[in-house]
Amino acid sequence: MTAPKLRFATVWLAGCSGCHMSFLDLDEWLFELAKHVDIVFSPVASDIKTYPEQVDVCLVEGAVANADNLDLALQLRQRTRLVISFGDCAVTGNVPALRNLWAEVDGGSRQSVLDRGYLELADRGAQHPHAPGIVPELLERVLPLHEVIPVDLFLPGCPPSAERIRACLEPLLRGERPELTGPDLLRFG
Amino acid sequence: MSVHTLTVDGEEVAVPAGATLLDAVRAAGAELPTLCHLDGLTPVGACRLCLVELEGSGKLQPACATAAGEGMAVLTQTPQLQAYRRMAVELFFAEGTHVCAFCVANGNCELQDVAVAVGMDHSRFPYQYPQRRVDASHPHFAIDHHRCILCTRCVRVCDEIEGAHVWDVANRGRECTIITGLDEPWGEVQACTSCGKCVDACPTGAIFRKDDTTAEKQTHRERPQLLRDAREKHQWQNQ
Is some CB atom of chain A closer than 8 A to the CB atom of B121? Predict the structure, then answer.
């Protein structure tokens, strides 16, 4: 009897999607992965819009930067057995969190980044976006995932290489916990 | 020449009198992470990564700044030391703003390396994002204080090897910072000879050449020792 397939998800919060591109760089090993998992939620491999119940493993790319990120992070934690911080943005905040440097100056980080993006750099018709319920509100501080929810595994890298992602997932498919040590498997940047 | 015999993790090792515990650990072939230490410069024991335990006393000592003594029994890898080292590295990351992804020293950074060495996969301490400066007033070099870990290698290499003493340390606590001259813009400090030794000594991407962009910093961290040997022992690199 073959083991039941793991219910597998990937999530994209505040990041550049580079970690997901790196995930796709797994190339033919994705076929191997597909033998062992059902992809139940993913921006690159599924069209499901609502995070499902009873997920076994979830790779979470990106920092927590806005209200939608926060809601999804809290929801996925409740519905997932093993949550993996996937890449430097999820692990450290990385580039999206650089606006925290303005957290206590010039009206705060949220206002500073919006003014810069939508007013100062606009060629014409400068105005702030305002679409309640559609465009999510930015949080004042961008946070790494583990400052919002408990995280079970950390997979650093910007992005983590396909080899590193595989080294993390392969043991999980066998029901083992991966040991990520040494510069090839554990390095920021 | 008198010699001290001691043990490092149970391994017997003999070092000349005047050697440090770090010399002894290296002679024993054991690995010990360091950050503020740079061969050729006076040790300061600032980063606390090379802490070792002296068996019997239970006290932790910085190996770089502690003299090796006859009969010492040094432990380098107790669970307590490993926990403290990882905590120290996490605090370095949390204290400044270290974003490897676009740093000039990505791939050639000793802070990045020690994070791997101590097995740091995330920081348990919240990042502080302190308000710090970038000084790009020098024609060739720049300093981004966000990436500075206050190891004082630049201060020491400029004072002890170049003899210019452009760099120093000002203030205390979270206000502590490296300064040039009398806290002037680097480009206005006449004592600076533009030798670049501070760039070579800097363990992170804090001090860099303006020509270098992401992951392009190349360093020559062996140079202070080469220069010191040349002056004091008349041993030249090409001999």
Answer: yes
A 52-91 near B (Cβ less than 8 A): 85, 88, 91
The verdict on A22 touching B (C-beta cutoff 8 Å) is no
Q: Does residue A105 belong to the interface with chain B, where contact is any CB pair within 8 Å?
A: yes
Q: Is the same domain home to B100 and B188?
A: yes
Q: Does A146 touch chain B (CB under 8 A)?
A: yes
CA of A170 vs chain B CAs: smallest distance (Å): 19
Where chain B has pLDDT below 50, the residues are none
> What is the total count of domains within chain B?
2
In chain B, which residues have their Cβ closer than 8 Å to the Cβ of A147? 126
How far apart, in whole angstroms, are the C-alpha atoms of residue A124 and residue A27?
A: 43
Which residues, listed in sequence order, are joined to residue B83 by a DSSP beta bridge?
none
Report CB contact under 8 Å: B115, A188: yes
Give B187's Cβ-side CA count (13 Å radius).
10
Instruction: Note whether B213 and B113 are same-domain residues.
Output: yes
Instruction: Kindly state whether residues B143 and B218 are assigned to the same domain.
Output: yes
Domain count, chain A: 1
- B93 CB within 8 Å of a chain A CB: yes
Query: Which residue range forms the structural domain that includes residue B12?
Result: 3-77
Q: Which residues of A touch B96 (CB under 8 A)?
A: none
Tens-place pLDDT, residues B128-175: 999 999 999 999 999 999 999 999 999 999 999 999 999 999 999 989
Question: Cα-Cα-Cα-Cα dihedral of A92, A98, A101, A104, to 10°?
Answer: -90
Nearest 5°: phi and psi at B67? -75, 140
In a domain, A112, yes or no: no
Nearest chain A Cα distance for residue B89, angstroms: 13
Choosing from B46, B77, B108, the residue where a domain stops is: B77
Per residue in A37-94, pLDDT tens?
A: 999 999 999 999 999 999 999 999 999 999 999 999 999 999 999 999 999 999 999 9
**Domain span holding position A68:** 6-98+139-173
Pairing of strands B3-8, B11-16: antiparallel
CA A180 to chain centre: 19
Residue A1 lies in a domain: no
AA letter at B215 = A
Same domain, B21 and B129: no
CATH number at residue A144: 3.40.50.700
Residue of B nearest to A101 (CA): B129
Query: ipTM of the assembly?
Result: 0.93
